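Hi D.,

Good news: the full-assembly prediction came through. Inputs first.
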Amino acid sequence: MIPHLWNDLEGTFFPESALDYMPESRLREVQLQRLKAVTALTYEKVKLFRERMDAKGLKPADVTTLADVSKLPFMVKTDLRDTYPYGLFAVPMSEVVRLHASSGTTGKPIVVGYTAQDMEVWKQVIMRTLYAAGYSRGDIVQNMYGYGLFTGGLGLHGGLEGIGATVIPISGGNSERQIMVMKDFGVTAICGTPSYFIHLIETAQKMGIDFKRDLKVKRGVFGAEPWTDEMRQYIESASGVKAFDIYGLSEIIGPGVGAECECQDGLHIFEDHFLAEIVDTKTLEPVPDGTEGELVITTLSKQAMPVIRYRTRDITAFETSRCSCGRTCRRIKRISRRSDDMFIIRGVNVFPSQIETALLKTEASLPHYLIVLTRKGGLDQMEVRVEITGEMLTDNVGAMEQLQKRFGKSIEQITGLHAAITLVQPGTIPRSEGKAKRLLDQRNLTS
Amino acid sequence: MKIRQISIFLENQPGRLSKLCHTLADAGVNLSTLMLSEAGEFGLLRIITPDADKAHTVVEKAGYAVTASEVLAIQVPDKPGGLASVLSTLDPHAISVEYMYAFACRTGRAIMIIRFSDLDRAADILQKAGFKVIKSSNLFAP
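Then the structure:
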């Protein structure tokens, strides 16, 4: 008996997805062969990598097994900034058919390039992403990722056309129009950031539109920011949209690095194109499977801008079991936080996702919130602003004060820290049309 | 018997109450009476209006957190000990007052808006004791 083969969608066969089920021994052979090739190419063409290899006394020929990848030097985000714009490109510009750039939070953006073959690979990993989430020809898909320099919009777009879906390239923003289009165009599936979609669920409610009753949206792929299982539960129960987590980053290729399958139990990495490692955030040594650490990715087939051992800053762990979907490519756990989202207050490491979990323990649905850090008299203060919704409101001042206390207690239980809770009116915390802003650090830590 | 009351969550910030009042004014909602309870950084504005449905919709649409509840409108004898007589009637029945405020009217009647811990029983007991529990339809009559 052949278990669970080609079972993405009720037995339909998608040739692109076949690679997800490659026998593991063959997959490792492919990875090693490609790792050797990409190391040699990058050493030859990219000065920064060559200098770092030379400084370690390493040559591409020193890579003889997959484990040897851990000898190679890391790349980090500032490397892309320092070599702005084309310093990490390994091909002449005449071979580059597409540029994207990420909006850097400080100074210059980072620029990434694609050859024609890179574009084909990108399309295929997105197709595999979409098939894994049950998308197929016949779906009418509203793509709410931003179009333009951001890799999200056009990245998903290519794969959506690849599977033969009907794409609505609406991009982000204009929430009421998003709902109108969803309804009038008979949209069956969507792509976007989870925080924006939660904002749309609220928008629909205000417009008197019930997702389950009035809309046909059945599934969505969500990514580009860390989110939690609680957010998934909220999305699925409030909108009836089955929510799949997808993973990617511009520095590697954009969306399409990893994706959840119908089991929604960790994200499969498309390992024939991306070699994933997880390392200890302090020692930077590989950790045993199942242990949390920072995800490090090497592109195995990228031509225009190969990236070796890129430190993603995303915290995750490998799943140790085989997925029941039958895919052989390994899974990482959902990324609910980034190592650089973490803030330190009174010596305690806190992740915004912990605050979110605390708020969700108190209220069934997800309130909008903002963490505000200030420093008073040399002591760090944490304030959490929570928006009150009509459902949370009771005609009882005492009950509202109790709610405020419960939020504070729940945060203290999870983080061990006191947080001042401020209840605020709906809509007063700035809404992102893209990534949610959860942290406002007003401490002047340099002084 | 019971009167519909609309409660709105407001942050204790300059201009918030004024903005809400303008929202209601723009919709042509006339406030018969109101009470603002504050708890540090936030407050609850409770309003009584003949246009309760409209007020609820308008305020909710403007993005406020709003909830509807019920209260009693009791006509209190307009003389010393008037309110005391209402309250002492309820004392033996273990019904407590959660909050109360006065109703503004032009007829010279003294009317209190009271939120009791048990509205139905309070209405029943007060009526049997001869007090006037005012219906919604009569409350706003000119």
